[in-house]
Amino acid sequence: MSAKGKNRSPTSMEKCSKCNKAGNPADKKLSITCDCCKDLLCGDCHGLSPTEIRVFELKTVARVVTFLCADCRSTMTPLPSILKKLNDLTDEVQQLRLRQNMMATEAAVHELTERKYRAQNIIVYDIPESTSENIQEKKKHDSEEVAKLIRGVCNIDCSKAKMFRLGAPKSADAPPRPLKVILKSKSEALAVLRNKGKLSKPGSIKADLTPLQREYLKYLREELDKRISSGEKDVTIKYIQGQPKIVKNKILSNSQKNC
Ligand SMILES: [Zn+2]
Ligand SMILES: [Zn+2]
């Protein structure tokens, strides 16, 4: 028997879903069930002509013609345009995903390039700025001061290193602007960073990190604080193969470290 709506004599138990009248088995007008919502409609309410209702008397299992009540018909009418909109939206989502992937890849490539470029730099803080008006004298002053600082850290000749102050010039009483120092290679920068603990103020030399690296380091520091305040001991941030990680001190003794 087909699951589709069928016409039949109403039973006395059934009520029409539209007029709410109880069925009359003697009724010549057959009731019919909507193929969509399965509501029963009496002969007065389904609105089918005698010819039309004969279609539903066909004894075929695979009846193609379906009966829809007025409510279902009005719901179904906008369906094609809804489906079209759905298709358009699906296309749009796919395009957006593709674009998002492309942007993420571009951002990753840019980040890697930027990290590679910055790997040979160091940022030096707290070197007073020259009060000279002469640019060459200012540069000479910075170069000499940086060379003096680095000599106290490791044996690297940075007399020819390029360097410049970060940010726009400030008033004379403002704190000195940091200096970006471009060394010859990444290994020189690493040597300075690994040995900066020899300075009385190790914080005066830092790695030249990208904004993303700084953000990640900030996140790691917050995580470390949380773990320490929840009672965890012997944890710290160390650079392992160039990447900052939260590690247990005892693990450090067994692993390669190059901070
Ligand atoms: Zn009715
Ligand atoms: Zn219906």
Automatic annotation (TrEMBL):
Transmembrane segments: none annotated. Residues 1-20 are annotated as: Disordered. InterPro entries: Znf_FYVE_PHD, Znf_RING/FYVE/PHD. The lineage of its organism: Eukaryota, Metazoa, Ecdysozoa, Arthropoda, Hexapoda. Keywords: Coiled coil. Gene3D superfamilies: Zinc/RING finger domain, C3HC4 (zinc finger). This is B box-type domain-containing protein. It comes from the Eukaryota.
